[in-house]
Amino acid sequence: MSQPFPQHPDLEPIAFLLGRWRGEGKGEYPTIPPFAYEEEIRFWHVGKPMLMYTQRTMTPADGMLRHSEMGYWRPAGEGRLEIVLAHPTGITEIQEGTVSGSRIEVSSSMVGLTGTAKKVTKLERSFDVRGDVLSYELRMAAVGQPLQRHLTAELRRVE
Amino acid sequence: MSQPFPQHPDLEPIAFLLGRWRGEGKGEYPTIPPFAYEEEIRFWHVGKPMLMYTQRTMTPADGMLRHSEMGYWRPAGEGRLEIVLAHPTGITEIQEGTVSGSRIEVSSSMVGLTGTAKKVTKLERSFDVRGDVLSYELRMAAVGQPLQRHLTAELRRVE
How far apart are CA B82 and CA B74, in angstroms? Predict the structure, then answer.
């Protein structure tokens, strides 16, 4: 997590995300049984006007890896934010929305799917950071189901 | 680059990519002056049926960071490959194509763009690995220009 580059001034509105976060979340969806997960999220920068983002979730009982994501968070001026993400499940997200204080609200303007990916059509994400606590909610429309809550989690900054 | 997980058997067709690669490339496009770059690419796995991929390029003279990408490479059965990528420039790629021996050919079935991204409409990538040498070509249609060569590079496995 060494950050040898000066922080780009455009990052100031989302600098509250920087660091490593760990915590727990729960998932639900009409097509699957509810589940719990552990999660680690990292945000870092390399001197450019975007944050690098990686994430992984684990099964609480045995620490087995479940999901992961990677991508970039781009301040887009005037309280706007763009997020570009890749999922190992064959999905990409173009997310666009707002940053207001330490509250982020984004909605997918495009979801990309490989031929073998699950049919996800819409993803909305919201994030709140209060001190060293990050909470988020992810809403998803997929496999014929309407947009609805899929994931909620709360993490603490550990680094 | 520690890989404490057993390699998933589905990765065998693209296991020749695993490792850290360093080398040089050159770029060209009708709308910009030609340029040279240094590059580092890493492929690793976490026991799942996909490779994790990160890449960065630097200006040769001063080592300043230029571009980077992150994403996942997913064998999709029967010589097929899917690649999902995020770019810090506000672009996502869904790439689909073939693996034949150590030759990979993929073409974008979807390019995602944030509102502030450059208008890229098509990306094709090809990769060849011979022993410890990886060469690739990237062809791009963007900003009204037809699909044409944009990047070529040759890297050596260093880890």
Answer: 5
User: A152: exposed, middle or buried (C-beta count within 10 Å: 0-12, 13-18, 19+)?
Assistant: middle
Q: Does A139 score more than 60 pLDDT?
A: yes
Contact A53, A43 (CB under 8 A): yes
Decide if the complex's ipTM is over 0.85.
Answer: yes
Q: Which of A85, A10, A114 is nearest to B80 (CA)?
A: A114
Cβ–Cβ contact A46 with B under 8 A: yes
B54, B110, B114 ranked by CB distance to A84: nearest: B114
Per-residue pLDDT, A3: 52
pLDDT at A4: 77
**Is 60 exceeded by the pLDDT of residue B2?**
no
Is the Cβ pair A65, B46 closer than 8 Å?
Answer: yes
Say yes or no: domain A9-157 is CATH 3.90.45.10.
no
Query: pTM here?
Result: 0.95
- What is the longest distance spanned by two Cα atoms in chain A? 46
Burial class (CB in 10 A: 0-12, 13-18, 19+), B67: middle
A30 at B interface, C-beta within 8 A: no
| Minimal CA separation from B38 to chain A, in Å | 17
Q: Is the pLDDT of residue B3 over 60?
A: no
Contact A92, B86 (CB under 8 A): yes
- Contact between B72 and A70 using a beta-carbon 8 Å cutoff: yes
Q: Do A86 and B82 touch (CB under 8 A)?
A: no
For chain B, give every domain's residue range. 9-157
